[in-house]
Amino acid sequence: MIKFIPAASDVWSKPRLWKKKKKAYGFPGTKKDFICSKIIEYGILGVLIFSPLPAASVYEWSILVIEIAVFTMLGFYILMKHRPILPPGQESVMKKLRFLFAGFFVYLVFQMLPLPVFLVKIISPGTYHFREQFSLGIQQEKFMSLSLSPFHTFQHGMELFAYVVLGFLVIKTVTERVQVKRIVTVLLAMGFFEAFYGMFELYRDNPRILFYKKEINLNALTG
């Protein structure tokens, strides 16, 4: 009886093909790209560790620090020649979200642009009548913005943009199981820390939220 032994190529082709597919997604970059990706990864962890208490204390400098950190990480991402590769399905979702967020931020910019008064009166009668009642010399104005406070619109728009960029960096650079575990571990650790810190401040004689003295809701864990 003759037995047919499969060729070596048939035996090893599937495992090799699987290995190639496994390497198709992930990080194929150079050493420089690897360093940039690590800076981004630990920068994300740093933002997660740093941001809760200062941001909750409503200090403006805390939001500025978060924005600077996020935009610095974005700069390192742009410097990367070879970026982590995402699965096709996830990449298609990112493209759809890209248009959604782009449209939203275009709308924010449009809110701050100086527009002819008659156009503001048509688009947003409420804004025009509010300015008419509380602004002096509105009759002499030829241009006004849809936003009642363009500076605050810009300020909060930049903050929101930083959060969107942070989410983008997480999706684009966190592609390994180990990275996901680190982020989850940091989130759990910060959750426990915030809870115990809140209980600690609750039973202090002079409770604080970071550097602020807590004056209201003294019987609650938050201010």
Category by helix and strand content? mainly alpha
Please give the number of β-strands.
Answer: 4
How far apart the termini lie comes to 85 Å
Main sheet record: 2 strands, antiparallel
CA-based shape: flat
Uncertain stretches: 1-25
Q: Numbering strands along the chain, what is their spatial order in the largest sheet?
A: 1-2
User: What percent strand?
Assistant: under 5%
Radius of gyration, taken over Cα atoms and rounded to an integer in Å: 26 Å
Task: Estimate the helix proportion, in percent.
Answer: 55-70%
Question: Any overview of this molecule?
Answer:
The protein is mainly alpha-helical and 223 residues long. It has two domains: 28-83 and 176-223, no CATH class; 90-159, no CATH class. 69% of the residues lie in helices and 4% in strands. It is built from nine helices and four strands; from the N terminus they run αααααβααβααββ. Helix 6 (117-123) crosses helix 7. The longest helix has 26 residues, at 177-202. It is flat.
Task: Summarize the entry for a quick read.
The chain is mainly alpha-helical. The protein has 2 domains: 28-83 and 176-223, no CATH class; 90-159, no CATH class. It contains 9 helices and 4 strands, in the order αααααβααβααββ.
